[in-house]
Amino acid sequence: MSKILDYVDERLSLGELRAFAAKKKVPLHRYSYWYYWGGISLFCFICQVVTGIMLLIYFKPGPEAYDSVRQITYDIHFGWLIRSAHNWSATIFLISVLIHMFSVFFMKAYRRPREFGWWSGILLLLLGLTFGFSGYLLPMDELSYFATKIGLATPEALPVLGKTIANLLRGGLEVSDVTVQRFFALHVVILPLLYLPLLGLHLWLVQKHGNAVPPSEEEKPEQERKSIPFFPNFLAKDLGMWLMTLNAIAIMASLFPPQLGKMGDPLSPAPVGIHPEWYFMSQFATLKVIGKLVPGFLGEAAGMTLFALGLILWVLIPFYDVKTKGGLVAKRATYFGIFVVTVLVLTTILGYVLA
Fold it and tell me: Which backbone phi and psi does 78 adopt, to 5 degrees?
């Protein structure tokens, strides 16, 4: 065994990796549990890849999309479970990424020199939302068909290029089999090609700069700060969280599998209470409220402008919260984060009330 290890180490330099793992430390403080959410997000993404590949064996994009999902759900042994696990791991993935993002925000982990870690994380979240949106249509049942139709009305409200972008995504003026094929290509080819290198960059930046500590810990002298070795201490706890996440996915997938409704029919009326998935409900509710206050194109443009300004402020926060210790700017940034969380939660609830 030692000869085999020496052989591999000589060619792959695994000794350097072991040395790095032995030296790496993870800060230990009362907010350390927030560090696990990045690992949970990674584990859910791995579950997405594994279950997605299994679904690829039977899924047929285009005119046969609905029938292939019906076959997976009702005919293939444990097909319903794999589809359900794919669905629930996607949900937990987006929840964990959002929690991870807000924990990074409130711990001020976007400050120098971690700006690129913040920006790459934001891009990963946006790609994750696009994964969810593109995958939602693929069953092509009534719910996914009309929800996607409503969702594509959002980019259509953009000035100048809005209709062109929506028509490009749809492959025409209406959601059809062509749309399913385009969304399938986006979901399984284009988005992974964008996501995987960005994920690699994000993980490398985390390893390069280490785990950030909250401002309260930064104020302590170096000798008073506590830490634990990454290997094996933190890694064992992280793997424990992975196991708990796997249990959560298995339980939810077994008890609450997604159903398959009637096949989407463009000639039939939309079902009552149709709405996007929960991760787009805030935008849906905001556009609906603004549309009532300012009807027509002007209201849609106002809503899209509001979203764009909010996202720009969120992305650029490393530039206007640059202090390393407290101060008025840091407090205002924290209040801004609390405001964003509050608005997202309230408008999401409002969306379900209005739907």
Answer: 60, 15
pTM exceeds 0.85: yes
Check if the beta carbon of residue 177 is closer than 8 Å to that of residue 62.
yes
Size of the chain in residues: 355
Q: Where are the alpha helices (DSSP H) in the chain?
A: 2-12, 14-23, 36-56, 65-74, 79-106, 115-136, 142-151, 153-156, 162-170, 177-185, 191-209, 215-218, 235-255, 281-293, 297-315, 317-320, 327-354
In this prediction, residue 19 has a pLDDT band, given cuts at 50, 70 and 90, of confident
Domains for the chain: give ranges and CATH numbers. 31-271 (1.20.810.10), 275-355 (no CATH)
- The tokens describing 23, both together, are 């030296």
Q: Tell me how far the alpha carbon of residue 247 is from its chain's centroid.
A: 20
**Residues in contact with 309: Cβ distance below 8 Å, sequence separation at least 6, in sequence order:** none
- The amino acid at residue 279 is Y
Give me the phi and psi of 98, to 5 degrees please. -65, -45
d(CA 141, CA 263): 4
Residue with tokens 């997405």: 48
| Local confidence band at 279 (pLDDT 50, 70, 90 cut-offs) | very high
Q: State how far the alpha carbon of 82 is from the alpha carbons of 59, 128, 258, 268, in Å.
A: 12, 20, 11, 30
Question: Is the pLDDT at 158 greater than 80, yes or no?
Answer: no
pLDDT attached to residue 283: 87
